[in-house]
Specification:
Chain A contains nine helices and five strands, in the order H-H-H-E-H-E-H-E-H-E-H-E-H-H. With 219 residues, chain A is of the alpha/beta class. Among the domains of chain A are: 92 residues, 3-Layer(aba) Sandwich (Oxidized Rhodanese, domain 1), CATH 3.40.250.10; 31 residues. Chain A is rod-shaped, with a radius of gyration of 40 Å. The chains are: A alpha/beta (219), B alpha/beta (204).
């Protein structure tokens, strides 16, 4: 004995089922959006941030610049005033505040070039790197020690004392050559111009010899 | 008979779909740690606000010190009342609980390590996960014969002026050595007594 009402409902059972399934599908689509959850997950970010792989030493960078390696971009993340004052050759300025602007993403979010971030020390460059790493940019590196280290090792390299191994001396000559490439002049490097001596013709002065006159007379 | 076939197919299909949906919902794992701050806000925080403290400001019952170095370094010497949580372990379950508790108790967490650089990664991570009660203690740690020496350090000191140095060096190299004036030493006149030759007297 089927209830009449139930029978009526059951007549629409297929449409009912279809409606239920569509609702469920809609529910799946509208799962809570983690819009703040942008980027890679936090465990990965932590392990990236702690690993020292991102650092590039000043010697390596000097080598790249001198050998005109075309595959990298230098990005200075200090503010514009500091950038105008001095910076590395060929560097682009993206102040830290503008790191996430649209214009900056053309430099940061690309696969062609390696991006090397630097600042005065590596603190701010690390901050920029961590944010870029969260957004998934892969080919970024940080100059270890920043411009301070650049100055202390490349522009003004410390002379090795006599008790250091030969490799220290090689490193010093490499650094000295790099510093010359970047404009530092050393006094010994200047060639001394040969001094042209004027040859003064010897003047011949005839000297009259005075004859000694013997005293006349007796002694 | 056709009706029955249709029913069978539809019911099987619908049951399967519902099963799939249920399984998907159950197996969807929420990531353990969710960011609560997006990158723009994080960037604003690190560029605008002041999150550094120095040594003389740590004497406050609301401050909790956390040492992010590894256990060996911690045992060598650490600041008073500092807890040790190694930087790479801050996302472990126990440590996450510690941070949650501290946030609930409204205490400010001060992170320190051997150098501020070491602390930066855990700081940024924790901030992005929502722990905004965190600051960095800007110190450097050294050991002198097993005693801890801490000193305040300023981060991002401006670089030495490279261009000025280069110009200086060019100037130095181009400078000709100045001729040193030789002082004329006045000739000392020593009077020499001339001995008179005494002619022998007498004949020649």
């Amino acid at each position: 004995m089927i209830n009449r009402k139930l029978a009526k409902v059951l007549a629409f059972r297929y449409t009912l089922l279809a409606v239920i399934l569509i609702l469920l599908a809609g529910g799946l689509v509208l799962l809570p959006k983690y819009e703040k959850h942008e980027g890679i997950n936090s465990e990965e970010l932590l392990s990236n941030a702690i690993s020292p792989e991102r650092y590039i030493s000043t010697d390596e960078l000097a080598d790249k610049i001198v050998s005109q390696d075309p595959s990298f971009l230098l990005i200075d993340i200090r503010d514009e005033k500091a950038f105008k004052n001095n910076s590395l050759p060929g560097a682009i300025n993206i102040p830290l505040k503008k790191l996430l602007d649209e214009d900056s993403t053309t430099y940061l979010d690309q696969d062609e070039f390696d991006v090397i971030l630097f600042s005065n020390t590596n603190f701010q460059a690390d901050q920029a790197w961590i944010l870029c790493s969260r957004l998934g940019y892969k080919n970024h590196r940080v100059l270890k020690g920043g411009l301070n280290e650049w100055f202390n090792t490349i522009i003004n390299p410390p002379k090795p004392t006599e008790n250091m191994p030969a490799s220290a001396f090689e490193l010093y000559s490499f650094r000295k050559a790099a510093s010359m490439y970047f404009g530092v002049a050393y006094p010994e490097a200047i060639k001394k111009q040969p001094v042209v001596k004027k040859v003064i013709p010897k003047k011949v002065i005839p000297v009259k010899k005075k004859k000694k006159k013997m005293p006349e007379g007796g002694c | 008979m056709k009706e029955l076939e249709k029913t069978k197919r539809i019911s099987i299909a619908s049951v399967l779909t519902i099963l799939v949906v249920i399984i998907a919902l159950l197996s969807y794992k929420r990531p353990k740690h969710n960011y609560t701050v997006n990158t723009r806000d994080a960037l604003e925080k690190i560029t605008d606000s002041d999150y550094f403290l120095s040594l003389n400001e740590i004497d406050n019952p609301d401050y909790v010190l956390i040492d992010v170095r590894n256990q060996y370094e911690y045992e060598k010497g650490h600041l008073e009342n500092a807890i040790n949580i190694y930087a790479s372990e801050i996302l472990n379950d126990d440590n996450s609980d510690v941070f949650k508790d501290l946030k609930e108790q409204n205490k400010t967490v001060l992170l320190y390590g051997e150098k501020p650089d070491e602390v930066l990664a855990p700081y940024m991570l924790l901030y992005q996960l929502g722990y905004d009660n965190i600051k960095i203690l800007g110190i450097e740690i050294n050991y002198d014969q097993n005693t801890l020496i801490t000193k305040n350090v300023v981060v991002e000191k401006s670089a030495p002026d490279i261009n000025a140095f280069i110009k200086e060096s060019i100037k130095k190299a181009a400078a000709k050595p100045k001729p040193i004036r030789i002082k004329k030493i006045p000739k000392k006149v020593i009077p020499v007594k001339k001995k008179k030759k005494v002619m022998p007297e007498g004949g020649c």
